[in-house]
Amino acid sequence: MSHPDLEKFSIIGFQEDLVGWFVEHQRELPWRENKDPYRVWVSEIMLQQTRVDTVIPYYTNFMREFPTAEALANADEEKILKAWEGLGYYSRVRNLQSAVREVVEHYEGVVPNNRKEISALKGVGPYTAGAILSIAYDLPEPAVDGNVMRVLSRVLLIKDDIAKPKTRTRFEAILYELISKKNASFFNQGLMELGALVCTPTSPGCLLCPVREHCRAYEQGVQTELPIKSKKKKQQQKNMIALVIKNELGEFLIEKRPDKGLLARLWQFVNFETEKLEQEKVNIEKEISNFLKIDGFESLGPLQEVEHVFSHLKWHIHVYELKVLSAELELSTSQRWVQKQQIEDYAFPVSHQKIIEQQLKMEE
């Protein structure tokens, strides 16, 4: 019995048109050079919440550093964080390394080729599991992400809210029937590619679409109204003061973030949150003095302002430069003094990389 959403739908015609288009028009991307499951896995983790153009140089470098599952499993965490620096969502790479270690230990370095085992690996959700199984192993498993839900919402005229988990479940059920059993790899990649290049969020290129004759939304002229997606909560804004602290030797003070939470275990300049920046007259030096619990510092003035946007949060960082005597500051176990030429050996979040760039530029 066919899925109700696929009644009177040309499944074979859709498969042939989509796969044929992908064969002709697929982009040359480094992770498409072969179907090595480890390479596919790394690319899919990198591509979560990150644009293809951004990922390409990171992926190329990452593969050079960690060409095999064994290489990544045995790598030092500081090294993998440095290779990931700037991609964000750092828990992705930590989970990836944990899962790859499990593959090396329990599966002799071979990525599992069934949904039960692969889904048990850390950080491998339904989409990633389906992507690896279909792309690398050519198994007819659905891989449902935002791109795929957008394409199928339009093609099948589905008006369910794609932000709701039950909608993803509906699309997975549809895809088990719709996916090409002959070429699952190209079918799933074709759906993703179509969403990235043609069936885009705004102004879809319907005249160039290889599956236009199958598209119910196009037939009714409502393609720009789909998919339906409820709005996210408003971002929270935080005002921060970051301190570029130098000592008498010209070293910089940096600190490691906590083991858990946002940007866990990355390095940063000393910083703190303040609400007082909203007020007009605020004694910044007093704020800094209260935070550091010292008076003996020389303020070299404001350095820059940095804005950084997370999915749920926006940081507005006011950066100040200080000079202190090493003896004045009592360092915690997470803090250390580093030379200017050493600073780039540490993995920093993007917001603090901007501070480093400005600092190095000033010192040239």
UniProtKB/TrEMBL annotation:
Record keywords, A-Z: 4Fe-4S, DNA damage, DNA repair, DNA-binding, Glycosidase, Hydrolase, Iron, Iron-sulfur, Metal-binding
Top-tier EC class: hydrolase
Keyword Metal-binding carried by entry: yes
One term of GO molecular function: adenine/guanine mispair binding
Reaction equations catalysed: Hydrolyzes free adenine bases from 7,8-dihydro-8-oxoguanine:adenine mismatched double-stranded DNA, leaving an apurinic site
Highest taxon of source: Bacteria
Enzyme Commission designation: 3.2.2.31
Residues in HhH-GPD domain copies: 46-197
NCBIfam families: mutY
Function: Adenine glycosylase active on G-A mispairs. Base excision repair (BER) glycosylase that initiates repair of A:oxoG to C:G by removing the inappropriately paired adenine base from the DNA backbone, generating an abasic site product. 8-oxoguanine (oxoG) is a genotoxic DNA lesion resulting from oxidation of guanine; this residue is misread by replicative DNA polymerases, that insert adenine instead of cytosine opposite the oxidized damaged base. Shows a powerful dicrimination of A versus C, since it does not cleave cytosine in oxoG:C pairs.
Descriptive protein name: Adenine DNA glycosylase
Source organism of this protein record: Alkalihalobacillus alcalophilus ATCC 27647 = CGMCC 1.3604
